[in-house]
Design goal:
mainly alpha; single chain
């Protein structure tokens, strides 16, 4: 019988209690404060991006001066009828190979504001992209129930550098809201038709939107939500078909892209420096490798789901598929990296990986811009050697992101995907080997990434969840102690563990 207070028992309340006790999200006021702070951070990043492009709004987007200020843009080139300088591994960036959304906008703007209105066109591009980034930020906050890691997305330099490059921000906003519409629980509307339409439009803006749709379909098919998956896929196909009929230039766009498919930031761009290599063949080879890699990764996710009986996740598999795309596609400019930013923030909880990847993206963007300037004036820009070095650094950073995302996707249900991060998306998800886990935790805790996105069963969090855990802990019998039939319980003495009084009672 213990007669003195155990220091560990006395210090337990001061140390925060059992692990995971305070992982549940706060109340409504705390959620409002964190969401406001996150959106303010996102607003600051957008302001910096607008200021970066503002110098070219006042002085013009002509090359090489725009490249020296790092505000050269394919949209501005289309408005001016110009293109990037010809160099190995560099796409021209003119109007011929653009996506339908960018082509429609440039044509409408030129017919309204006149052919010499690049500054006006770029002002509208910045306004539309800032609004799209704001919508994407709200969707990301709705998906990330634990909002600490949204700062990795909202402070990303990829947002800063990609605001004036294309309309990919609009496609990302559509993709994130499509994910919101397909959640099983949580705040917000539900519509598989609307989600498919948004994802289809996102795929028109950039083919990476179809990669996001592929990741969602893998989850829905393995989570016994095949009807939602079929409806979403059908809606996406209808939207793509209508846009194809309305545009009428799909064949010409594909031919233009095929002739100029290799761009900076990829292995294909590095190989294009070799003399005698046909960039068309190189683009075709890497496009085939991209499709094969996506099919292989999807097959591995489905195999794991069949082996374990658990559905494929959402955020981590999508992040892994997008990272594979950036590594294997023939072109991966900064606007393509923007697609990975929100999904990496949801599942890649390694600070050194996030910071290293962001620095690599920023360095590569600066190197590409100064490389264009060096092509036109070798005395003021960077040599191709530096562009190749920063490309290799970016590829290494993407490999680290891919490894973390794949590890999170392979994490079994009921375990924290990243123990080092100490964050499981707001769920008290404990491993089966944890002796302090509540009995019901393994029954209700989904995979870390699914619970955070609201695709799994709704966990009990907040004050109600803590009360349920406390009730479960009180209902567990103490090992080695048996209570006599009819014996009354008595409160334990200070510092005495629960159940010790009953264990010391004489048996009837």
């Amino acid at each position: 019988m213990r007669t003195h207070a155990d220091p560990a028992d006395l210090a337990a309340p001061l140390l925060g209690g059992q692990p995971g006790r305070h992982r549940a999200p706060g109340g409504a006021q705390w959620s409002l404060r964190t969401a406001t702070a996150a959106l303010l951070l996102l607003g600051l990043t957008c302001v910096l991006g607008v200021l970066k492009t503002g110098s070219c709004l006042a002085r013009g987007f002509e090359l090489p001066t725009a490249a020296n200020r790092m505000c050269a843009s394919p949209v501005a080139n289309a408005a001016l009828g110009a293109s990037f300088p010809a160099a190995p591994g560099r796409a021209r960036g003119d109007l011929a190979g653009f996506s339908p959304v960018t082509w429609w906008f440039v044509q409408l703007a030129q017919s309204t504001a006149g052919p010499d209105s690049a500054a006006v066109i770029m002002s509208f591009v910045l306004l539309i992209n800032v609004l799209a980034i704001a919508a994407a930020g709200v969707a990301l906050l709705m998906l990330a129930r634990s909002r600490a890691w949204t700062a990795a997305a909202f402070a990303s330099p990829v947002i800063l550098f990609s605001l004036g490059q294309s309309f990919d921000a609009v496609g990302i906003a559509c993709a994130l809201w499509g994910v919101v519409l397909l959640r099983a629980w949580g705040p917000g509307p539900r519509s598989a038709i609307g989600a498919g339409a948004l994802l289809g439009f996102a795929g028109i803006v950039n083919p990476l939107g179809f990669v996001v749709l592929l990741g969602l379909l893998l989850h829905l098919m393995t989570a016994r939500r095949s009807s939602d998956g079929l409806v979403a896929a059908g809606s996406a196909i209808i939207v793509v078909g209508v846009v194809t009929l309305f545009d009428g230039r799909i064949v010409g766009r594909f031919a233009a892209w095929y002739a100029d498919s290799v761009d900076r930031g990829t292995l294909a761009s590095l190989l294009s420096y070799q003399a005698g290599i046909d960039t068309r063949v190189l683009g075709a080879v890497f496009t085939g490798a991209w499709l094969v890699a996506l099919a292989a990764a999807s097959a591995l996710f489905l195999r794991r789901a069949a082996r374990t009986g658990e559905p494929v996740g959402v955020a981590a598999p999508i992040a892994a598929l997008l990272a594979i795309s950036l590594l294997t596609m023939p072109a991966a400019p900064v606007q393509n990296a923007l697609w990975l930013v929100p999904f990496a923030a949801l599942c890649v909880h390694r600070l050194w990986v996030q910071v290293g990847w962001m620095l690599a993206e920023a360095a590569l963007f600066a190197a590409v811009s100064l490389g264009d300037s060096g092509t036109l004036d070798s005395a003021k820009g960077l040599s191709p050697m530096w562009v190749a070095i920063f490309t290799l650094l970016r590829i290494a950073a993407l490999l680290a992101v891919l490894m973390c995302a794949w590890a999170a996707a392979e994490a079994p249900a009921g375990t924290v995907a990243d123990p080092a991060a100490g964050d499981d998306g707001g769920n008290r998800a404990t491993s089966p080997e944890d002796p302090g886990a509540a009995p019901a935790a393994h029954e209700v805790a989904p995979a870390a990434q699914d619970g955070a996105l609201g695709f799994g069963p709704e966990p009990a969090t907040g004050p109600a969840g803590e009360r349920a855990e406390a009730q479960a802990a009180r209902s567990e019998p103490t090992p080695g102690a048996e209570r006599a039939p009819g014996a009354e319980s008595a409160p334990a003495a200070p510092g005495q563990p629960a159940g010790a009084h009953a264990a010391s009672e004489p048996r009837a």
